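Subject: for your reference before the review

Hello V.,

The reviewers asked for a structural picture of the protein, and I figured it would be easier to keep everything in one thread rather than splitting it across files. Below is the amino acid sequence we used in the manuscript, unchanged from the supplementary table.
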Amino acid sequence: MAAAAETRIEVRELGKSFRLNGNLLEAVKGVSFDIAKGEFVALLGPSGSGKSTVLNMIATLLKPTAGNILIDGVPTVPNKASRQVGYVFQKDTLFPWRTIADNIGYGLELAGIGKAERAERVHACIEQAGLQGFAEAYPSSLSGGMRQRAALMRTLIMEPQILLMDEPFGALDTHTKIDMHEVLLKIWEREKQTVLFVTHDLSEALTLADRIIMFSARPGRIKEMFEVDLPRPRDAVTLRETPRYAELFTHIWHSLGEEFIKDRTP
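And here is what came back from the structure prediction:
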């Protein structure tokens, strides 16, 4: 897919090392891949394989030790965020003193968008996320899944062309996670953002992605790439009952399981 369409993200020989207790820890080594415009790609691998580190370097939150990152052909600059790139974190990061509506509209407020337009766009996001009736509620009164919906909409309301997501549903129970998959799939089918989604959950990667990039155990390298040829639009529940889903799961799980075993080895 990346070869046939316009490339949005290019990662070339990316590496990252950290100093830990006086020792050099190599987290990521020699990582290269392309992401096409409108493609949904999952970064999959065991904990500590460097998936989030790569995502944070693309987001300019971390400076690479080696290699280059280009977005739309332009090299990224560490600590210089782009308005076309949105980031959804592992935790909902909502402000507890602001209502759900005010949390969702926070970015628009900072951007100087007028009150009337802001209210209209916030209302549309609340409808899309299924949060009707909770606009004036505070985060403490909502479930984890509802808070994560609000956090997702707070990013999407800024209309980013590229969406970076770092295990945003990892702390949710299975039922709520599948519910969030449905919300995200519907939004992506409509908006077709370029999405890079970090997960260690193979079922999640298969449900959402066009392509899976699998990382090895640390130092994180690309072990394999898999095309997810499941038809769209997808139903997050019934998809798991299809023979092709089972075939892909079995095929990819073998390779992923090898990395889990390496990660456990002293």
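For the response letter, the relevant points are probably these. The radius of gyration is 19 Å. Residues 94-159 form one domain.

Happy to draft the paragraph if you're swamped.

O.
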